[in-house]
Every structure is written in C-alpha cells, then in structure tokens.
Write a structure and sequence with these properties.
about 150 residues, Rossmann fold, 6 helices, two-stranded antiparallel ribbon, alpha/beta, about 15% strand, five-stranded parallel sheet
Length: about 150
C-alpha cells in the first residue's frame, strides 16, 4: 500500500519554475497579485527553478539585486538553465513565437519546461497559455485567475 505524503511535507509540494511576475508579486505588497503569491508560496517545493534572465528582470523591476541574490543564497531560487548550452533550442523558440515577441526569460522558461517536465511554471504572464513545449504540448501552469 502506498501512502500519500503528509500535507505540507516536501514530497507534497509542487515542483516549480518561476517567472518574473511571480517573484515581483511575492516581493511587492502593492502588487495586484501579492496575496496570490503569498498564498501559493507555501505549496511550492524549494528551491524554485528559474533562469538568469528572470533574475535580471526581477532585479530591475524591484530595483534591488540584493533581494534576488539573497533568495539565491538561501537556496529559495536556483538557476537551472545555461543559455549557451541551449542556444539552438532557444533560437528555434524565438523564431516559432516571433509574432508574440517573447523576451529571453520567456524563451528560457519554455525550454526549462521541456527539460523539467514534472515542474509547473508559475507566472502571471498570459502568453504562457499560448506557448507550447516540445512544439505541441501545453505547458503546465500555475497562474492567478485573472492574467
């Protein structure tokens, strides 16, 4: 007989890849998605995976690199993609979605979703409902009801 992990145990938490919007919403009390981000935080498995492009965007939007670096240091966040190692796949995605004008962070997160298939992308960006991993597969998302 297989038992379920206890609620709140690391095994019961959702493995996640996080986008800029989630990190900004979590950090900024005045953000429209702040309460959603706070409520979600306890249900996500640490470390949260992300990419350097998301870290740069988050630092810019929060006007604080220290916040992002502290999350890395505490192992809340982990950089899980080296762009140089995936340049061909990222370029293919950029061409495929050129009409949507994705930024580098979006492309990296799509690629990460292909590499970490058991992880959901946490985002406030509605474009992720359009993007596909492995060309045809919907990307599993966690997003607020209104995006």
């Amino acid at each position: 007989m297989i038992s379920r992990p206890a609620k709140g145990s690391p095994a019961s938490k959702t493995p996640a890849i996080v986008d800029t919007g989630y990190l900004v919403a979590f950090a900024r009390r005045e953000d429209e998605h702040h309460q959603w981000a706070l409520a979600l935080a306890g249900r996500l498995q640490l470390p949260l995976l992300t990419c350097e492009a998301v870290l740069a965007e988050t630092s810019f939007m929060l006007q604080s690199s220290a916040y992002v670096l502290a999350m890395l240091r505490r192992d809340v966040l982990r950089v899980a993609l080296d762009c140089a190692s995936h340049i061909d796949q990222l370029l293919d995605l950029a061409v495929r979605y050129a009409d949507r004008k994705p930024d580098l962070a979006d492309l990296c997160l799509i690629r990460m979703s292909e590499l970490y298939a058991g992880h959901k992308i946490v985002t406030v960006d509605a474009d992720f409902r359009i993007y596909r991993r492995n060309k045809r597969e919907a990307i599993p998302l966690i997003c607020p009801l209104k995006t």
